[in-house]
Specification:
Length: about 725
């Protein structure tokens, strides 16, 4: 090294060190919502008597993780290193553990209550032991204690009081799982935040530190499972070589209570095992899967199970052998059952038949199997009947399979919602879905009650979210997309949570503790979903995006080999009007729903306007609730969406001095793209539908910048 470089290094490290000590950290979003920057002085003074020391008795990887998180969190938030003690030696300790790991917790005699809450539930309570005050975080399981530790940190991060705590929590759903559509080559199907987090070529020798941070983030919101690979699965994931890599990931996740699962390829016995068939009823096939399961569990004793996309979009499945979904799922379930694993069988199946409507396809294929699946099978059903559109009515299967363990699949990654360019808070969409009344057992049979076991008492419950994470430094591409990962975890823990509460927590933990600023950001988030629907697919429009990549509009698309892969199949625009008639005069897919919601949807006068064009072919001059014609209302909705994005940009700009410059600028750049895209959607879609409606744009709607021809030949760039 030359002299000059030698001299520069100490200077540089001094500069970096002083930056760090001044609290100027790179605001690149890496820390997610787990930011432990020091609280205001007054708050610290208020908290200090409650959190003077930390006592985590016992030894285990999870207990070590708890200790580490609380030391980092408390020290950061309070601005001084927290004292770690072996016993309760002063007032104001935090004691954490299970009755087995911690003699102090055992002395609280909470065993009965803790057992009822299960190994993931917890109690946070202000207690007295030997006359000393303490906050106890107690659970029947160490992972539950970890969840409790994150809860306490969240209280502090969001500046909640710590006096007289009495919090009792348990997850409403058992499996709270991220689905990663990651390929073995490191690419991610529908991923918009860089490459896969799993570096298969380095594994198992090297396990990236980032995997631990991923597991921490998951645990902090109660996510307890991760399907590592794409549902369009590569059989090699089950090879001995890859299973060793998977085991290394499982080892990294284990302290945080995150179990690994794998997507399997149904024909793997042929591709990997060299068998002549993958027929689920062939004994050699079943034996191959049993042996494979044994091999997996010998490496990963707490392996979660399989996720299966079969007989869907070209993926192999039981149909080749004239076997049913139940035959396929139950054969796999039998292989996993001795080890306690589960099968998540996807309901995303839609084989074209003459006169068929894709919105009824999965219902028709799967409803007949209600009650036919093995006890360790869950049927994983997308929230809506088509495919993760900006807005869909709930999937009718949620009201039709009382004897099946239904597990919703939500899409956190924004395949159809502007990738990682658009700010949209998805908790609003998920709330609408979970609150939908299926009327399966009369009024009040909401999706939330169907899936959490309260309606039918299923033993196994769960929720899956297609992850939006990747190798980008900020994990999700857009800083605000982190909120959707957060919201998914919170809703999987408690499907009854209000989006406002989730947004408030997240904003305070992530961007600012200033209540007025937080409120402004929260409001933006809460409005963002409806705005996106306005500028993409208002009034029940769906599947009108550019084919393949799905970014930007292409309502004119009619070139795909399958009719139901074309936009024109879904909107059915003609001289008379717009929309898909799914009533008795059309496909009658509405009959998949239970009365009275079926009749409500089927009647154009009572159908909620947000689903109008989903269920009805509506004349251009039909009057909506606003008194305006369909055409005018449609045009004004698109304009309203654009107006919102413009207002959001102004609002964000006005917050410049309240958010760190780095994240502020990055979000501002994304909002500029969002405005460009919203304008583009409005112009392209309205110009195209105008060729049918033959009516002028109503006053208040801006004229498009280009001709229809331009939009039809130009794909929007992301
Ligand atoms: C669609 C995606 C496709 C997925 C498929 C699925 O476009 O990439 O493979 O869903 O869920 O939304 O299987």
């Amino acid at each position: 090294m030359n002299q000059r470089r030698k001299a520069i290094i100490p200077v540089l490290s001094f500069v970096i060190a002083s930056f760090m000590s001044a609290g100027v950290m790179a605001e690149d979003g890496y820390r997610l919502w787990l930011r432990y920057d020091s609280l205001p002085k007054q708050t610290v003074e208020r908290y200090r008597p409650h959190v003077a020391s930390l006592v985590v008795q016992g030894r285990s990887p999870t207990l070590a993780a708890i200790r580490e998180e609380l030391v980092a969190g408390l020290s950061g938030l309070l601005g001084t290193k927290v004292a770690v003690a072996a016993d309760l030696d002063r007032d104001g300790a935090i004691i954490v553990g299970t009755p087995r790991s911690s003699p102090l917790i055992a002395r609280l005699r909470l065993d009965h209550l803790l057992r009822a809450l299960g190994p993931e539930g917890y109690i946070i309570r202000s207690v007295r032991l030997d006359g000393r005050r303490a906050i106890a975080i107690a659970s029947d399981g160490e992972v539950g204690a970890l969840y409790g530790a994150f809860h306490l940190l969240r209280l502090m991060q969001t500046v909640q009081p710590l006096d007289d705590l009495d919090i009792v929590e348990r997850p409403r759903l058992r499996l709270r799982i991220l689905n990663h559509w990651d390929n073995l080559d490191g690419s991610i199907e529908r991923g918009y935040a860089g490459r896969s987090l799993w570096n298969w070529s380095e594994l198992p020798a090297r396990v990236d530190q980032r995997l631990r941070d991923y597991a921490r983030a998951c645990a902090s919101v109660g996510i307890n499972g991760s399907v590592l690979n794409n549902v369009n699965a590569d059989a090699r994931i089950l090879s001995a070589e890859y299973l060793r890599k998977v085991a290394a990931i499982a080892d990294a996740f284990r302290p945080y209570g995150v179990r690994v699962y794998l997507s399997i390829r149904f024909s793997a016995p042929m591709e990997l095992g060299g068998l002549p068939t993958a027929d689920p009823l062939d004994p050699t096939v079943a034996a191959w899967w049993r042996q494979k399961a044994d091999e997996i569990y010998s490496l990963i004793p707490d392996f979660g199970g399989f996720l299966v996309k079969a007989d869907s979009e070209g993926q192999p499945g039981p149909r080749t052998y004239r076997r049913t979904h139940a035959d396929g799922a139950n054969m796999l379930a039998a292989a996993l059952a001795p080890h306690g694993g589960v099968v998540m069988w996807r309901a995303f199946v839609y084989d074209p038949k003459p006169g068929y409507d894709r919105a009824a396809a999965a219902y028709d294929s799967l409803k007949p199997f209600d009650g036919k699946f093995a006890p360790n099978v869950l049927l994983q059903v997308k929230n809506g009947p088509i495919d993760f559109q900006p807005r869909e009515p709930f999937h009718p299967l949620f009201g039709a399979m009382p004897k099946t363990q239904l597990m919703p699949e939500l899409q956190i990654t924004q395949e159809y919602l502007g990738f990682s360019n658009h700010l949209v808070f998805l908790a609003m969409m998920w709330r609408e879905f979970l609150d939908s009344d299926t009327y399966a057992e009369g009024p009040g049979s909401t999706v939330a009650k169907v899936i959490d076991g309260s309606l039918y008492g299923q033993r196994l419950t769960g929720m899956a979210g297609v992850a939006n994470t990747g190798s980008d430094r900020n994990w999700t591409g857009h800083h605000f997309a982190q909120a959707n990962w957060y919201a998914f975890g919170r809703l999987a823990w408690d499907p009854n949570l209000a989006p406002r509460r989730i947004a408030e927590e997240w904003v305070r933990m992530t961007f600012t503790r200033d209540p007025a600023t937080a409120e402004r950001i929260v409001r933006m988030m809460l409005e963002s979903y409806e705005a996106l629907v306005d500028y993409m697919t208002p009034l029940g429009l769906h599947h009108i995006m550019w084919p393949g990549h799905h970014y930007g509009p292409a309502p004119w698309w009619d070139k795909a080999e399958r009719p139901d892969w074309n936009s024109v199949y879904y909107h059915r625009a003609d001289a008379r009007g717009l929309g898909f008639d799914r009533t008795a005069t059309g496909s009658d897919a509405v009959s998949c729903y239970n009365p009275p919601i079926r009749d409500l949807f089927a009647n154009i006068a009572t159908c909620p306007e947000k689903f109008l064009l989903w269920f009805h072919h509506v004349p251009w001059d039909y009057r909506l609730l606003s008194g305006r014609t369909l055409w005018d209302e449609l045009a004004l909705r698109y304009q309203r969406g654009v107006d919102w994005v413009r207002a959001a940009r102004k609002e964000w700009d006005a917050l410049a001095d309240r958010i760190d410059a780095e994240r502020h600028a990055e979000v501002a750049r994304k909002l500029a793209i969002q405005e460009r895209d919203a304008v583009w959607w409005r112009d392209a879609v309205l110009l195209y539908f105008q060729t049918f409606a033959k009516r002028p744009l109503p006053p208040g709607v801006e004229r498009p910048a280009h001709t229809l021809d331009f939009y039809m030949t130009t794909s929007l760039k992301w």
